[in-house]
Each structure stands twice: as structure tokens, then as C-alpha cells.
Amino acid sequence: MVMQVFMNLTIGLTSLLVLSYREFYWSYFGILSGALWMITNMMAIVAIQNAGISIAQGVWSGTTIIVSFVWGAAIFGEEAKSLALALVSLGVLAVGITGISISGTNLLAKKKDEYDILADEIDAYDDNYKPPEKPLSTKTILFGILVASLLGIPNGSVYAPIHYITSTEDITVPYIVSFGLGLLIVTPVFAIPYFAYFHFVKKTPIDWNLKVLPLRAVMAGTMWNIGNWASLYALSYLGYTVGFPLSQCALLLGGVWGIFLFKEITGARRIGLYSISCIVLIGGAVMLGIYGK
In whole angstroms, what separates CA 214 from the centre of its chain? Predict the structure, then answer.
């Protein structure tokens, strides 16, 4: 949560940069979007702790695609060139995401201590996480998958409130200011009870780690908000039916980092599966862009 607080502060402040070329726009819906995003991140911690980052991220990316597509096609009434082929495109995307997720696990590795990998990966998400002393049980993993599945509901709904704002102009991109300020407003609502629980109930001191975490948070928050900025442009031009599902293809780049920088995806079989899954994912993205809009 310490990392999250610093990251949220960065996101909130960098969101104001849109004011350099767009007029200030405020909507109370920004608070709702900020709350949904906080809930998404808290559920992500639980999902990763129980199922591992590769499986959890793959599952929530898939459910996020479904939820955002339902918002756009079923609730907002955005017309698709071919609804049937758009649904097929979603299926192709889901297959690609599944393959990328599996390539990040030890299922295809001959010998791999997945719990050491899990401890390294989760550290960036939760500063109070401690690696399990024994292998995770099937029940634990299934619980993590369940949480990751439900995570897609708030994650796929973060920017749905934009649809209900009455304005004569497209305020999709300027809405990032409302989101950023809303995130700053809701962060204490989530953070204070969290810190109080660990301090008074768990009797665990909060390690603010001011020498390391603020810099990491600024870097992570800035990079995330650049992607967030781009996703709002995608929503503006492509709509919720196509724009938001395509934003989940960020999982592809995560795998590239895992291969070349962190060396988390190694071995011919895992890299091969990742490469094939990337082709499938890109194919699904192209299909959705053609038939979903």
C-alpha cells in the first residue's frame, strides 16, 4: 500500500499535464473512477498472492475485455460492424492472453521454483507480502483465479462513467484530470484503514522505505499514466467496445520485459508459446479493430 500511495500521488499530479493543451474539466464521476481503480489494485494484490502474477494477470485481462465489451455493446449500444465476428475476435484475444499467461508460469519448464519467482514479482505490488513457506495449494490458486476473475468487473468499468456525462464536447481525454483528482481524494479512504489495521491489529510497523519506494513509484506512476492517457484516446476514437479491450494487450509488452530484462520467461518451449500467443493476440486485436467498430 505504501507503493500504491506514492504511485497514486504521481498519477494524480501527472494527470494535470493535460491542462497544458486542454481546458480544465471536472466531474464527480472522477471520484467513482478513482475508487474503482483502487479496488482493482487491492484485488490484484490478493489475486497475485494466491495465484501468481502470470495466471492472475491473464485471467483479469480476459474478464476485463469481456466486461468492457459488454459495457460498450450491450449497455451503451455501440454498434459493431459484425457483432458475431467481434465476439470471435474477443475469443481470439482471450486465447492469446491465456497463452502469454501460461508462458509466464513454470508449467512448461523442466525444473523451476515458481515460488521464488512469485516472491520477486509480488514485491512490486505489495510491500507487506511474505512468500509462502510451502507450495500453494490448489484451493489457494483457485481462490486467486476467482478474485482475478471478479477483478475484471471494476477494472473494465473504470471509465464507464464517462458515458453518463452530458456534454456537447468530447470530454474523454480531459476526464483524466477528474480521474487523477478523484484518485487523490479516495486514496486516504483506502490507505488509512489499511495502515491502521497493520499498526493496531497486526502490530506490524509500516516500512515507508523513503530511499527506494518514492522513486520507483514516480517511475511506475508516470509510465502507467502515459498508458492511461493513450487508452483514453483509444476510447475517444474507438469507443468502449473496441478501445478498452485493446488496452489489455499491454500484457504482450509485459512478456517482452519478462524475456529480455527480467529473464522470467526462459527456455525454448516457454518463449515459443509466448511468441505464438503474441501472434494470436495481435490477430485478435486486428480483428476486433475491423469488426468491432
Answer: 21
Comparing C-alpha atoms, which of 147, 59, 156 is closest to residue 98? 59
Q: Taking the CA of residue 55 as centre, how many other CA atoms within 13 Å lie in the half-sphere pointing to its CB?
A: 21
Banded model confidence at residue 114, pLDDT cuts 50, 70, 90:
very low
Residues 6+ positions from 56 with CB-CB distance below 8 Å? 44, 47, 48, 50, 144, 145, 147, 148
The letter for the amino acid at 13 is L
Rounded to an integer, what is the distance from CA 44 to the centroid of its chain?
8
Helices (H), the chain: 2-14, 29-51, 53-69, 83-103, 114-122, 138-155, 175-196, 213-247, 250-260, 268-291
| CB hemisphere CA count around 114 (13 angstroms) | 21
User: Looking at the predicted structure, is the pLDDT value of residue 68 above 70?
Assistant: yes
pLDDT in tens, 190-216: 999 988 888 888 888 887 788 888 898
Is residue 114 exposed (0-12), middle (13-18) or buried (19+ Cβ within 10 Å)? middle
DSSP, collapsed to helix, strand or coil, labels residue 4 as helix
